[in-house]
Amino acid sequence: MRPVLTLAVLAALASCGSPCQELGDRICDCQAPGVARDQCKSAVQTQLGSGAQKPGKADETFCQEKLATCHAPANDPGMCDRLATPAGKVDCGLAFPPP
């Protein structure tokens, strides 16, 4: 079973300079600028910074794989729209693929 990271986990991961941090940043960048985006990134940082839930090697590998399909909104203007779809959630690690 592959790990599925929640938005909070991804947001926390964004603070470490790791693949999971980058993935969290990409997801948070789809939030409206201002409070919503700041809260998303703060949640990612909190999750990544908590000792018991720091990403392990398997998590980092998972995040690295998802970076190939979860594009940065600045480079792919349609990414935020796709993130609202089931396929986009799978692409960014927020959901399992359909069976």
Describe the structure.
The protein has six helices and no strands. Helix 1 packs across helix 3 and helix 2 packs across helix 4. It is globular and about 35 Å long. The relative contact order is 0.21. The N terminus is likely disordered.
Distance between the termini: 13 Å
User: Helix count?
Assistant: 6
Strand content: under 5%
Main sheet summary: none
**What is the helix content?**
40-55%
> How many distinct folded domains?
1
Overall radius of gyration: 12 Å
H/E element sequence: HHHHHH
Instruction: Give the rounded overall mean pLDDT.
Output: 84
Structure summary, number of beta strands: 0
- Spans with pLDDT under 50 lasting ≥5 residues? 1-5, 7-16
Structural class: mainly alpha
Shape, principal axes of CA atoms? globular
Output the keywords.
mainly alpha; 99 residues; 6 helices; single chain
Which SSEs are present, and which pair or pack?
Layout: H1 7-13, H2 19-28, H3 35-49, H4 57-67, H5 79-83, H6 86-91
Helix pairs in contact: 1-2, 1-3, 2-3, 2-4
What would you say about this model in short?
With 99 residues, the protein is mostly helical. It has helices at residues 7-13, 19-28, 35-49, 57-67, 79-83, 86-91.
